[in-house]
Design a protein that fits this description.
By secondary structure, the chain is of the alpha/beta class. The chain contains 16 helices and 17 strands. The chain binds adenosine-5'-diphosphate.
C-alpha cells in the first residue's frame, strides 16, 4: 500500500542510519532515478552519479547542511536517467535524533515534480504571449492612426501631381511596408479568442513573411512559390504564430552573414487530396538524428538558455492538430530541413474584411457625407479626399453625430471610425438601426486594427463595409460613391 501511495504522488523515500551506515531506498526512489527497484545497492555515490552535473554542488551542500543544522532542509535538483531523460526533483531531508538529542541518522523524501514545473512554465509562457499580444494589438492601433494620415496625404499629393516625384513614390512604398507589418501585428495579436473563419493561407503567409523579414534577410534568400491552396478553417492569429515560428526556426538554423549561399523556400499548394499544404525548406544546419524524435517535445531545445524555450514546435503541433491537420518534417543533418503542414479545406470561401459588392455604374451626383472620427488630423485629411466629389460634414464623436440624426439630418454615406472613446461605431450603428434604419445601412466603418471581441462579433453580424486604416483612398472613394448611387433615384 505504502509503495502504491509513493508511486501515486511520485515520492521516493530514503533513510540513512548512522550506527551501521546503512542506506535504504524505496522502490519509487529507484523509479525516479530511472532504475529498476534494487538494480544497484543504494549509496550516496549512486545518487550523485545520477544528479545533473550542473546541480551536483546543490545536492552536496544540501546533504551536508542537513547533517549540520538538524532542521529540515529542502533542495531542487535534476537527475539524468540512464536513457538521457532529465527529471526535476524536489528533495526534503531531516536529521533524526534520540531523546537525548544525539543524531541517529537522516530521513529524506524526493518528489518528481517535472510535470508540475512544465505546467507552470507553460502557464507563464502563455500569459506572456497574451500580454505581448495585447500590447502588440495596442501598438498596431497607435501606429495605424498617424499612418493613415500620412498615407492619405501622400495619396493626395500623388493624385494632384500626375508624375509624382521619386520621393513621394518611395514614401508610399515605405508606408505600404509599414502597413503590411502593422496589419500582421494586429491580426496575429488576437490568438486568445479561438474565432475561426475561412482563411487564405497565402495571405497569412505574406503577413508572416513581412513580420519575419528582419530575421531572414541576413541569413538567406527567400524563394516564394505560392500556389492556390484551398481556404482553411482556422484562427488567423494562431495560424500566423505557426508560420512565424517555422520561419524563425528556419532562419535560426542558418548562420548570419552568408545570405547569398543560403535559401529558405516557402511553397503553398493544394495537395493531391485537395488539402492546403505549406512547405518550408531551409538550407541550414539540419536536425541531428538523435534529436529528430524529440523536437516536438515541450522544452526540447538546442538553443542557448534565454534564446530558445523549446515550446515553439510543441505549440505549432498542438495548433495544427486542433485544426484537424498534420505537421511533419524531414531533415538531412548538415544540409537543411523541410517542415510540411497540411490542413483540411474549409467549406466556406475566405471572406476578407472588405466585403465586395456588385460593381455599379458610376454616376456623378454630389453626395452628402458625414465623417465620424475622433482623430482630428485623420478626419481632416479624409475631408479633403472626399470633398472633391461630395459635400462633407465632420464630427469627432458618436454623440454629436447622433444629435444631427435626431435633428433630422440624413446623409448618403456615413464614414465612421469603429473605436471611439465615448460612443463606439457599433453603438452608433445600433442606435441608428432603431432611429433611422436606412442611415444605419449607409454606414461605412474604419478601424485602426484593434478589435475587441465585441467589435469582432459586431463585424461578423453586419453587412456594412469595413476598411482597415490606413485604407486605400480609391477603394474608400468608390465605396462612398456606391452608397451615394444607391440613394440616387
Ligand atoms: P526553440 O526554437 O525555442 O528551440 P522549438 O520547439 O521551435 O523551440 O524547436 C525545438 C528544436 O528543434 C530547436 O531548438 C532546434 O534544435 C530544432 N529545430 C526546429 N526547427 C529547425 C530547423 N528548421 N532546422 C534545424 N533545427 C530545427
Amino acid at each position: 500500500m505504502l509503495a502504491e501511495t509513493q508511486a501515486l504522488v511520485h515520492v521516493g523515500i530514503w533513510e540513512w542510519t548512522l550506527v551501521d551506515d546503512k542506506l535504504y531506498w524505496s522502490d519509487e526512489l529507484f523509479q525516479i532515478l530511472g532504475l529498476a527497484p534494487g538494480a544497484v545497492p543504494p549509496s550516496f555515490e549512486q545518487l550523485l552519479a545520477h544528479v545533473h552535473p550542473d546541480d551536483l554542488t546543490t545536492v552536496k551542500s544540501y546533504l551536508s547542511r542537513a547533517r549540520r543544522d538538524r532542521a529540515p532542509t529542502t533542495a531542487e535538483y535534476r537527475v539524468v536517467r540512464p536513457g538521457g531523460e532529465i527529471r526535476t526533483v524536489q528533495a526534503r531531508v531531516r536529521t533524526i535524533v534520540d531523546a537525548a538529542g544525539t543524531p541517529l541518522g537522516l530521513i529524506g523524501a524526493d518528489q518528481d515534480i517535472t510535470e508540475t514545473k512544465e505546467l507552470a512554465a507553460r502557464l507563464v509562457f502563455s500569459d506572456r504571449m497574451v500580454a505581448v499580444g495585447t500590447l502588440a494589438g495596442g501598438v498596431a492601433h497607435e501606429i495605424n492612426t498617424p499612418l493613415a494620415t500620412i498615407s492619405t496625404h501622400l495619396q493626395l499629393r500623388a493624385d494632384s501631381d500626375d508624375d509624382a516625384d521619386d520621393g513621394t513614390r518611395a514614401a508610399r512604398e515605405a508606408v505600404e511596408r509599414i502597413r503590411t507589418i502593422v496589419r500582421g501585428l494586429s491580426a496575429f495579436s488576437r490568438a486568445d479568442d479561438d474565432v475561426r473563419t475561412a482563411i487564405d493561407l497565402n495571405r497569412v503567409l505574406e503577413l508572416a513573411l513581412a513580420m519575419t523579414s528582419h530575421e531572414i534577410r541576413h541569413r538567406a534568400r527567400l524563394v516564394k512559390q505560392l500556389g492556390a491552396p484551398p481556404p482553411v478553417h482556422a484562427n488567423e492569429a494562431r495560424l500566423g504564430h505557426v508560420l512565424i515560428n517555422l520561419l524563425v526556426n528556419a532562419a535560426e538554423a542558418i548562420p548570419e552573414g552568408n545570405a547569398d549561399a543560403h535559401t529558405i523556400q516557402v511553397t503553398t499548394r493544394a495537395d493531391a487530396a485537395g488539402w492546403a499544404s505549406f512547405e518550408i525548406r531551409d538550407s541550414g544546419a539540419g536536425i541531428a538524428r538523435p534529436h529528430q524524435a524529440r523536437i516536438f517535445d515541450p522544452f526540447f531545445t538546442t538553443k542557448p538558455t534565454g534564446q530558445g524555450t523549446g515550446l515553439g514546435l510543441s505549440i505549432c503541433h498542438g495548433i495544427v492538430r486542433s485544426l484537424g491537420g498534420d505537421i511533419t518534417f524531414r531533415s538531412d543533418p548538415g544540409a537543411g530541413s523541410t517542415f510540411i503542414i497540411s490542413l483540411p479545406p474549409s467549406a466556406d470561401a475566405p471572406r476578407t474584411r472588405k466585403r465586395s459588392e456588385e460593381h455599379q455604374p458610376v454616376t456623378r451626383r454630389r453626395g452628402s457625407v458625414l465623417i465620424v472620427d475622433d482623430e482630428v488630423l485623420f478626419a481632416t485629411s479624409l475631408r479633403r479626399v472626399l470633398g472633391g466629389d461630395h459635400d462633407v460634414t465632420v464630427v469627432h464623436n458618436g454623440r454629436d453625430a447622433l444629435e444631427r440624426f435626431r435633428a433630422g439630418a440624413r446623409y448618403d454615406a456615413i464614414v465612421c471610425d469603429l473605436m471611439m472613446p465615448e460612443m463606439t461605431g457599433a453603438e452608433l450603428h445600433e442606435t441608428l438601426s432603431a432611429l433611422a434604419p436606412d442611415q444605419a445601412n449607409q454606414m461605412i466603418f474604419l478601424t485602426g486594427g484593434a478589435f475587441s471581441p465585441a467589435s469582432q462579433r459586431f463585424l461578423e453580424r453586419i453587412t456594412n463595409l469595413c476598411f482597415e486604416k490606413p485604407c486605400d483612398v480609391d477603394e474608400l472613394l468608390s465605396a462612398v460613391r456606391r452608397r451615394v448611387d444607391a440613394r440616387t433615384p
